[in-house]
Design goal:
260 residues; alpha/beta; 7-stranded mixed beta sheet; 5-stranded mixed beta sheet; 27% helix
Length: 260
């Protein structure tokens, strides 16, 4: 059976953010991931500093350390994220390839994803065209796209939006492997991933349910640091109808559920 890998690029504590807060936010995301109905997956966290987390004892959680210079400028921090995703990609290659889902360390994912993907087995992967934007602290969400499919699709606003199926040869051998590789077409600029998958003849199927929550109240998104919310996100904020999450949604995304 094809492997499934969640890949999380984590900022360095030397960036200057409250590191305890970073660890808490990551723990919430890991809780969401380990809430899966199918536990046949591996989580890679690419990082400078290994964080404290309540999931450290899980055998399918692995920290991949890098030692490149810490990048503090918002634009350079995107390069830091890409290097860390390449480190994850090299590890997926060593594992024989499979489904690779890049998850921002403050976002939340549906507990149905692994089971659906492993059962469906699309040859190229999946695009999350629908999802939620939300405030995890209050459990408030609004739909992406907004009501009646107005506003931008989820994949145009959030980087936690695609599950790619990669063969080993599609991936770099090391994070500093110059390539080029198929993976490099999908390492940045998530708004163009659908277009690039079509250009490569590897079309992504739309995930048939809302698979992730783009969390906007952690205060740690690169887009917010740089003031780059963009017209797509601002349009959705105008159109979106905010509402409390239902009990079923909180359970699906592992929010406010402390059981392990």
């Amino acid at each position: 059976m094809t492997g499934f890998f969640f890949c999380i690029p984590l900022k360095s504590k030397r960036v200057g953010d409250d590191w305890v807060r970073v660890e808490q936010v990551l723990d919430r995301t890991l809780h969401s991931i380990f809430n899966q109905t199918d536990d046949n997956f591996t989580v890679f966290v690419a990082c400078h500093d290994v964080p404290e987390t309540s999931y450290s004892d899980r055998p399918n959680l692995r920290f991949l350390q890098l030692d490149h210079p810490v990048l503090r400028d918002p634009e350079l921090m995107r390069a830091d994220r890409n290097l860390k995703m390449r480190r994850c990609a090299a590890e997926v290659r060593r594992e024989g390839g499979g489904y690779m889902f890049g998850v921002d360390y403050d976002d939340l994912v549906s507990n149905r994803i692994v089971q659906f993907v492993r059962n469906d087995q699309d040859p190229h992967g999946y695009l999350l065209t629908t999802g939620y934007e939300g405030a995890a602290e209050t459990g408030t969400v609004w739909c992406l796209p907004a009501v009646n499919r107005l506003g931008p699709a989820f994949d145009k606003c959030c980087g936690t939006c695609a599950i790619f199926r990669f063969a080993p040869e599609d991936l770099p051998e090391r994070h500093d492997d110059a390539g080029p590789h198929v993976f490099d077409r999908f390492c940045s600029n998530h708004a163009k991933w659908e277009e690039r998958s079509l250009e490569l003849g590897r079309p992504l199927s739309a995930l048939p349910f809302r698979g992730a929550i783009y969390v906007v109240d952690s205060g740690m998104q690169i887009s917010r640091w740089s003031g780059n919310r963009g017209p797509r996100m601002r349009l959705n904020e105008m159109l979106g109808r905010k509402r409390p999450m239902t009990a079923a949604e909180r359970s699906e995304f592992g929010l406010f559920d402390e059981t392990r």
